[in-house]
Amino acid sequence: ANLGRYLILERLGAGSMGVVYAAYDPELDRKVAIKIVRPHGVRDEERRRARLVREAQAIAKVSHPNVVGIFDVGVHQGQVFLAMEYLSGGTLREWLAAEKRPWRRVVEMFIEIGRGLARAHAEGLVHRDFKPDNVLVDAAGTPKVADFGLVRLAAKLDTSGTEWSENPDLPISETAVPMFSVRNAEVLTRTGALTGTPAYMAPEQFLGGTVDAQTDQFAFCVALFEALYGGRPFEGSTLVTLADAVTEGRLRALPRNSSVPSWVRRAIVRGLASAPSARWPSIESLIAALPVDPVSKLRRRVSFGVLSIGFVVTLAWALGTVKHRRDELARQIAERLSDAGNALGVARAKGEAARHLRTRSFLAFDGSHRDEGEILWRETRSLLPVVDAAYDQAGKNFETALMLDPSRTVIRAQLVDARYQHLLFLQDFHVENRIPVLEERLVVVDTSGEKRRALMAAGKVSIRIAPGAASVRLQRYERDAESGRRRITEVEAQVSNETSLSLPPGSYRLALDGPALAHIVYPFEVHAGGNVDVHISPPPASSIPPNFVYVPPGRFLFGDADESLRQNFLNAAPLHETSTDAFLISRYETTYRDWIAFLDDSPANNS
Length: 607
Prior knowledge:
Blueprint: E1 2-3, E2 6-15, E3 18-25, E4 30-37, H1 45-60, E5 70-76, E6 79-85, H2 92-98, H3 103-122, E7 125-126, E8 135-137, E9 143-145, E10 152-153, H4 203-206, H5 213-229, H6 239-247, H7 262-271, H8 283-289, H9 294-301, H10 304-366, H11 370-404, H12 409-428, H13 435-445, H14 450-455, E11 459-465, E12 471-479, E13 486-491, E14 498-503, E15 506-513, E16 520-526, E17 531-536, E18 548-551, E19 554-558, H15 563-570, E20 576-580, E21 583-586, H16 592-601, H17 603-606
Parallel strand pairs: 11-17
Antiparallel strand pairs: 1-2, 2-3, 3-4, 4-6, 5-6, 7-10, 8-9, 11-14, 12-13, 12-15, 15-16, 18-21, 19-20
Helix pairs in contact: 3-5, 3-8, 5-7, 10-11, 11-12, 12-13
């Protein structure tokens, strides 16, 4: 098969970003690797091509012996592809598994890899997905960093995921990177190794912080720790438990019989620090420290007498440095907490203003003052991104403070509460596209599960039905996973004339029937931890005209949450709760054809 000018030879493998083939380039008479990229969230070919070209141009800047070269980029029959340097030596993971190697050889291999990453960082690039599977080895045994499919310009990269524009196709330098999905979290294998990228993620990636060169340094140290000690530095049976271990800096115990020198271990542990500022200043400084025993180096450079004096001086300097760093850390934490408090204040004030405007808007709509209602609703919606961004900013500052000092449980509690308030606000205003993101962020930080339980707390429902109803059924509205439509399921519950129930949050209805009584369907909604009172008095069936249905008095959701559909097609009010008195409605809808036929047959038309 051909792809453009390239002749496809065989499939080499596949990953989250695409499929890789071996191919032949007849124009330059050489073998290449072709990566066909899977687009994520890019809606059309032009944007897909432009996005990929920008990535390829960024990667192509990195000309280094330890980085896989990019030769070409293009689109063929709707397929976006990269033509890259072909390497036959397998991955770094395969190289490590092939045989047991001395620690010095492993360190030498990683020093070469570090030089490739350092060059990318010098060009302003961050890999963001470094792991042994993304390092290829050529026939001569030289490692080359590959798969920059997730690379972003370091100056613009941020994992907050707060873009309100709801546009997944922003330019690559401005695209926010979503947090790893807890819903699709992979579990650990029996050997205790987490399969996939999360095992190499830094605390800032789990917490939605800024991703930069320090993030690559953390992943590099995870891979080096694993290569030297036979296991990864952080334990966890699920993504959530792994995230806790990583963000709190809980390193696993080292093997007692390891031959790896202590200075190598210290260098790696520093690169695994929870706070990016506590890691090595750059990956160059890290790889410079790996091959050198600092004690031996010091012994060679000074005499015994000078060493004694130097030790005292060094100790005094070290103590002063420790105090300075402790004071600086306390200052940074206080600054972050102050910024978080200010952002929360903005979020709460603007959120209250949005609720006040929303109440006025709904009153205008319900009073048939549509123009006034629309103006107030636009003002309401203009505040939503402000509140959303303020909550996000508060969360990011709490996360940074927590990374600086993971032992402070008070900061974690503040972060959890901020995420919880943020989620409640989005639920209150039906911002459906943002809710799953906040739910996942809450899962990561709410280690006790308190707030998650609050979101699912049962509500209390008090039901009173006038005597005479012989059959009362409780039913629940649920969303069908395949079609997305609502379906009705029966709920096993004994409902009598006076009943109290505890029900999970959701939408329900009561179906009532009885001798000589009108059939009634009564919908109601249960909120987490809320109270619902249902009072129903079925009228006699004889009081309902033929082909009509009786609708009991009560509260219901009116309007539509989809702004585009609401304004352009339905001409409806925004979705909100309102109430109605009892009324009758025709059991059957009348079509336009039936209406015309009725008019044609009416006496007035025949006269």
